[in-house]
Amino acid sequence: MAIGAAVTFLCRTKIDPREPPPIHSTIPFFGHIIGVLREGPLYIARISAKSNAPIFTMPMLGGKSYVCRDPQFAALIQRASSTLDFDGIVADMTPRLVGSDRRTRQMLKNNTAWMKRSHEVINPPLGQQRMGAITAIQLRQFSEFVNQVQDGQEVDLFRFITTKVTASTMRAFYGPRNPFAVDPSLIGAFWDWESDIVAYMTGILPSIFAQKARNGLERCVEGFDKYAKVDGYKDAYYLLQNRKALHEEIGISRHEHARLELGICLAFNPNASTIAFWILNNICSRPELLAEIREEIEKNAIIAPGTISFPKLRDACPLLNSVYKETMRTTAPMTSARLVREDTVIADTYLLRKGAFVQIAGSLLHEDASIWGPDVSSFNPRRFQHFSNGSKTDINGNVSSAKADQIHASAFRGFGGGASLCPGRHIAQMEIISLTAAIVSAFDLVAPEGKHVVAWDPPRNVKKFIIAAVKPLELLKVRFKKREGTENVQWILQA
Ligand code: HEM
Hints:
Blueprint: H1 2-11, H2 31-39, H3 41-48, E1 55-60, E2 63-68, H4 71-79, E3 84-85, H5 87-98, H6 102-108, H7 112-122, H8 132-148, E4 154-156, H9 157-174, H10 179-182, H11 185-195, H12 197-202, H13 206-209, H14 211-229, H15 238-249, H16 254-268, H17 270-284, H18 287-300, E5 302-304, E6 307-309, H19 310-316, H20 318-331, E7 336-340, E8 344-346, E9 350-352, E10 357-360, H21 362-365, H22 369-372, H23 425-442, E11 443-446, E12 477-482, E13 492-494
Parallel strand pairs: 2-10, 6-13
Antiparallel strand pairs: 1-2, 3-7, 4-12, 5-6, 7-10, 8-9, 11-12
Helix pairs in contact: 2-3, 5-16, 7-15, 8-9, 8-23, 9-17, 11-14, 14-16, 17-20, 17-23
Residues 90, 119, 122, 126, 267-268, 271-272, 275, 332, 334, 336, 414-416, 420, 422-424, 427-428, 469 line the site of protoporphyrin IX containing FE.
């Protein structure tokens, strides 16, 4: 017993008293890793209850990770970007995600010039003022999609929405000859890769432990390679043309560029389409909310029979936008990671040691009753109605409109924050609220033939480590039924 205790003590990672307080695992060295592998994000939530500190230390594998669960500290971590680095993590992770060869990995590793130029190429064309071309194509395609759904069509809602949104997004960004249009089975291959991407990324015998992901990835890479061969980029959004030119300039081969292309598709596709699924689930499963949302859209965003204005959805439909944000709060508790490049003191309080990782834990911030109010675990459609950052609820779940109850901007982690704030957030909002508005205006989602009710709110895959919004664990079968009086309407989503 005494020897065990001594070994445990000696194996402990050394923690300076100025560092955030440690939460030790009972099994030294590997304990936290085992917990995380077994329970996923739930493990961090469980052990976080052992400390009240705004940041705590998880010692593991001889190193350590700091976990932040406080909005003020999150903001300070984001601000300290000169020593708490995000780009290095991206440059290290991206090649792992897409299976780059050793040469490409080396080229990108710590290549700060590449990262800086990548941001310059990627971020501005996704901005609110510059996204007009993408908006026009997406809205035209979503309109066609909604008009083509058959009255009475039965689908698994998750697969249906994610497939359509993926196809549409690829068309918008890569043009009509995009690999997923040439071979639509690549949509399934893409999602095979995405759904097991964390296992694939570890690099531990992917042909055994992540076979489906690997096969899916390789098929997509092949598709992008062919797309480049036939000069499909001629029709691509200029962001992608410029990114290809940048990769050519620094000596990345066509095949390796095809791999990196999957990295950006990972940003464009899974989150927006998964959230589109959850928002439909959240609205259509609540008849009163559905009626209110329809009324709001009808009053404020339908500008001619069957014509829905996206700017009006964005600017004049506060309930729809609140439901969108609340859907993200409850299904996209994203974690932002930073690598500590130099010892850094946060808020004159905590020392963060060079070489450690800091995580701003969306799963803790989004579930904290002291931030959001006592109904934090419930879906509250009005939580973001008064302020874009949300406001705290009272004991009865009422959402306060008092400025004092406005929630700290860094508490909502759906789009990350600071240096890693999602540059695609305006496009995501455009896609999700527009598609949602068109579907709820055109259809009732009812039980499939032979069933009495829709099995709304499928269980979620909360144990799985994700890099995108949480997925449903079961099918959600619904029947699209045209709403009475709208049978002959041709829907138009207008930019
Ligand atoms: C609701 C949908 C979306 C969610 C929840 C989301 C979330 C995020 C988050 C959390 C990050 C930061 C990653 C990190 O800190 O590690 C991020 C980055 C990024 N997102 Fe999104 N995103 C969404 C949609 C989109 C869309 C539609 C696009 C493009 C059209 C996009 C483009 C990007 C890009 C390019 C980055 C990388 C930024 C960088 O490396 O600096 N995202 N996104």
